[in-house]
Structure to design on (1392 residues):
């Protein structure tokens, strides 16, 4: 892998390379039309009441991420983050609350307030989203079974029914690790990838979508003018001490990583990014933070780009609601596109 | 009533003076500890899929209003707005979805996506909030029974368990009506008032809170250092054609109305404002919008101030969770404070 | 003085109660029509290259404050702040640059970049603003002569030609001091007050503007429909260690202080607030910052309200461009208004 | 040219394809060390007092664009836009004011206020920026000589001393034209390109910077740790009726166009985008704007990418301050990089 920013991936090339971060999936595949699930990201033990510094950025706000205003005001994350489908946001928030209340009760910590963070994408092309098959208990299960193993990718958890660039999408993850001032720093990214049109897809510079052709599955076959589909959620974790303002700056670089995969950011794509630090400490005051932050910016863009490609390559084809089938992008597809591309470049 | 901006209230002095706007309450008072409810605001028929221009402003983001990012991105409201307690946001969102899906199904309108807007305040001083007694069906009931009558105020609906400036708070409403270019314009405000410390309360310039004294009920009697209480939601409706940007400007004037009632905006108060237009049409391009907008700004501040005072004066005392009792501010209290104030001013 | 938040002013009740902060004025009164000037606020020695944590808030953006985007991105102030009239922003920025380059050269510090912060209000009712009588050298003079004495108030410096609530306005200042965790904390405010209509003015709850009556000078006598006048700049300093995010939260409370003086925030009023810390150190990570921050919020609102009233009461009447005369609000006016008010309250 | 979004360039592939838009340059090359200039963009006749709908987006705020707060509050541009070097912002604003006042006086239009919009990048690697060689009269010249010819590109006007991806940068422009609802729509982009490190450069997917190697000129040869350099300004014009909110959405897509050229958005790069409409009319209210807006988003990203590449390819090598020389990227360089890339892809 040639990575643009010159930084190497962590040992798992996964968000869980950041010590303490755990990820859990619950995948719901039932009958012909249930193709959905839940993905939970836990920053570390006792997120409530300890809280973690966090910052967020709305790239294109056609979508929702609950709890955003409080994260932006206080610069703190006080619950795990849960991803799911658009219509199950409410069960997800309720499930986070169940989880927080149960754990707090066990320790006799009072919970006066709670700000669940839920991100969503629309999986209604493959999933019976209106059936709201995700229940709060599924969310608690995803949280209770979260581990620090390399994050399972593709059509799992919240990614089960997602479509990306007209191919099967879903969950992807990646990481970068570097050394600064003698200390190791890791930044990990997890994406829920459900955005883009096939003709837009670019993989490491190669315009794969146009080269492979085909209609893609991005548009509702019954209504090609629909513009409300898509969305992507980008979550970032780091073990370095960054302030909420700095984490917001890092989160904003998700936009660069997504853009490298080809999309200009379509109207109907609800694109949100959130970054948190597991360090729970304030960085010292520094008049010039540039030399320290630039590697985070490169890592954020690179790992976001990687995570999207991982989501595509790890997904398997799926048939869902109404018999609709979405194909997966394969390594062979990529190779084929690269060969055509090499020929065209040589001829140009 | 001397109103600062020189504009007169509408006939009901209530948000429902705006034609088409309906408000419904479901009040839950059960046993010793259930003191909560739901308030629903419907901009007009068929909010989904017609959508209404809207703008929002976060005054202090320690709280949540779901759907805000999409309202800000698209400048559109596509569901009714529901207010409830902090832990019942999830049932509220799910209830809005039930309502939208049911109505859309009846008309065979497809619902590809949906962005419920839910505002919340923390009623845990009087209510067993952790019991999550609000169900999605209560939300649907509040929506189905919404009317254009003068909004019932005080300890009703979402206001049932709220506390404001150490007195019993809850729902308040007010309106302003004026004529511009020969046409009548109405701006209506509804607040869910659950903010402020007793010593901060100012009523039309009179420092009522300090003059009446008493500890107030704003702070948890068991933990006087708690800083996470409070919050207020301000909703505004107008029948004038305003753009989303202009509605955002109007919504920002809620901050002035709240400030006149005394609070500096405490840390733990999640203060959100949202304004929508029932006109569903774009105002013409105008290089200078000031002469047209200034009355909206005055009306927004005035009606917000009024609505908070209405919430206080219309509320009745309430005893709730753990036998905690919150007194109501009465007209006699106000009179007494005004007399003391008149004496002090005369002596100064 | 009864101050709402219960905090006492510092010894000078002035922004310069914050150790290290210096303020300088250059006042230009020449002939019939030059009524303008410059006010400079220096956070401390060597603001370039040391930089000071800062946060800013736009209350109503009809106006300009240069350098805002960088202050918000980096959370740092790297030059003194200069206030002047709307058309002299450019000489002000150039003057800051002169000052920074000269001082840096003396120490052989390279200046690769520089982000001057200039705030402005429109003094064209009294001043020949189009004549652009402020020169960069005036700005350097204001900077070079800045002292930590109690800030001269009223019609001085940038306040020379300003009009507030139809009375003569200008520069006002105030402070609050309190003790937390055994340490003394000071918050100082300086306003450039040039906003509001006479009928809106409220002084400590008393609707002085309506009670005193009179047309005020807020509107152009030649064009009563003009809506582009006014503006206010609120600058805040504290010696406590606050992060940029926290300083932004403090700056937002300027809106409450302004609202208490009566304005709903008119269309044409460019209202900006900026807060900086002289501590140049990061506060420790704290999951709950509320108990620590609430006094800053109260102090910010209270001192802003005070500073506006000081600006009004310290200003003297002025005749300027075209023979236009603006009267000053006097202590006798206030007394008279208070007496009327006391009678009305007693009769109500 | 393969353009990603499938939209064709306008006849000049330049911002001036938008009817009414004019661009003027003043280039200052004097002696060994003056390498700077001014670029002026005029939306149309009589921008003051007519005003044009506009929206802006701060991609990375290490820099300044004067007037931004007012553009965002009112959604209006009321002056031409001028680009220049960081230290000449003040002369640029003053020059815009000269121009507006002179034209208004000729028509007896009163100018109560004025909000000049100035964007800047740091050209101090090649230019004696501290010498402030741009005068207000240069700005007026650039405005007075602006034409609707294809925009001269490369090292001209404000671009004279700029460096981009370690190569000679400067001014670039591009456009897209399409038909919607039977009407022709044009979107034009102009960039002032002064950002990026050589190793980051990607041209249409090919990692040119890494393939060509070489140290680049992005970093100060005397101080390789400097992180405060760079910046890019992206200006967009369209003849379609878009609201300020919609123009803001379009401006945000500049980030995707820039990201495609390789940069993750470095700390010290002040990256601003502003879009305006020459239509001066409000679009009709539309519940779903997606189908109409998506081509604007694709066009904005595509034309921004193009404009950066044009800036690089049109620039000529330059030697400036201290004998520092910056090479230009040539078509031969691109060909060479593409050949290496084709080989590597074929071998992979």
């Amino acid at each position: 892998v040639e990575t643009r920013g010159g930084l190497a991936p962590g040992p798992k090339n996964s968000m869980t390379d950041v010590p303490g971060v755990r990820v859990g999936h619950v995948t719901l595949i039932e009958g012909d039309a249930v193709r959905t699930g839940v993905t939970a990201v836990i920053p570390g033990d006792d997120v409530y009441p300890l809280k973690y510094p966090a910052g967020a950025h709305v790239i294109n706000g056609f979508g929702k991420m609950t709890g955003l205003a409080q994260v932006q005001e206080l610069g703190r994350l006080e619950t795990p983050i849960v991803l799911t489908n658009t219509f199950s946001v409410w069960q997800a928030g309720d499930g986070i609350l169940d989880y927080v209340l149960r754990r707090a009760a066990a320790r006799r910590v009072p919970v006066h307030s709670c700000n669940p963070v839920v991100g969503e994408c629309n999986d209604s092309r493959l999933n019976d989203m209106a059936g709201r098959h995700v229940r709060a208990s599924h969310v608690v299960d995803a949280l209770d079974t979260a581990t620090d193993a390399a994050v399972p990718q593709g059509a799992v958890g919240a990614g089960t029914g997602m479509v990306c660039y007209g191919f099967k999408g879903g969950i992807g993850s990646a990481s970068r690790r570097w050394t600064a001032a003698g200390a190791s720093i890791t930044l990990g990214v997890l994406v829920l990838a459900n955005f883009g049109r096939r003709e837009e897809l670019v993989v490491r510079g190669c315009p794969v979508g146009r080269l492979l052709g085909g209609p893609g599955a991005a548009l509702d076959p019954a209504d090609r003018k629909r513009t409300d589909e898509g969305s992507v959620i980008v979550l970032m974790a780091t073990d370095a001490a960054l302030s909420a303002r700095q984490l917001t700056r890092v989160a904003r670089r998700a936009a660069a990583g997504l853009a490298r995969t080809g999309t200009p950011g379509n109207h109907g794509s609800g694109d949100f990014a959130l970054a948190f630090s597991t360090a729970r400490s304030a960085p010292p005051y520094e008049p010039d933070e540039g030399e320290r932050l630039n590697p985070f910016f490169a890592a954020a863009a690179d790992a976001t780009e990687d995570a999207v490609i991982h989501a595509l390559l790890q997904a398997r084809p799926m048939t869902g609601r109404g018999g609709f089938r979405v194909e997966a992008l394969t390594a062979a597809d990529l190779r084929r596109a690269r060969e055509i591309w090499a020929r065209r470049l040589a001829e140009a």
Remarks:
- Chain D has a mean pLDDT of 94.
- Residues 26 and 141 of chain D are 7 Å apart (CA to CA).
